[in-house]
Structures are given as C-alpha cells and as structure tokens.
Design a protein that fits this description.
This protein is an all-alpha fold. The chain has one domain. It contains three helices and no strands. The longest helix is centred in the C-terminal third of the chain and has 25 residues. The chain starts with 10 loop residues before the first helix and ends with a helix.
Length: 77
C-alpha cells in the first residue's frame, strides 16, 4: 500500500465529512476578528500565521467543494 492508493469512504461518511468541512469553513469566514487573531497566533510557527490561516480557509473550501462534486458524480441513478 502506498500513499496514493485510493481510500474507500462510505457515501454517508463522505457526505458527513463534506458537511462538517463546510460548516467549519463557513464559521471561520464569519468569525470575529478575535477568532481570526487566535487562529493566526496558533498557526504562527515560522512567523506567517496570517498566510497559514488564509491557506487553511482556502484548503477547507477546496476540499469541501471536491467532496461535494465527487458525491454528485457518484450519485446512484
């Protein structure tokens, strides 16, 4: 088994994961400045926490969209 081997995920679990990622992303986008500051501080290892926080939001958005697209493509007919 390699890191690139496909992982099977039950449709219900994939849908739950997509929903959860979307909720977290939505919450972070609508959170107040204090929350964003806390996240920036938490991610501020080498001194670029703001960039890391923006990257995290982008990654959440992209993974959520990808999961939703895969679920729609695999919808039983």
């Amino acid at each position: 088994m390699t890191d690139r081997d496909p992982l099977r995920l039950d449709r219900d679990h994939a849908a739950d994961l997509a929903h959860l990622l979307g909720r977290i992303e939505d919450w972070l986008r609508h959170a107040d400045t204090g929350t964003h500051d806390d996240l920036t501080t938490f991610l501020d290892g080498p001194g670029n926490g703001a960039l890391a926080a923006a990257g995290l939001l982008h990654a959440l958005d992209q993974h959520t969209l990808q999961l939703h697209q895969l679920l729609q493509e695999q919808e039983p007919r």
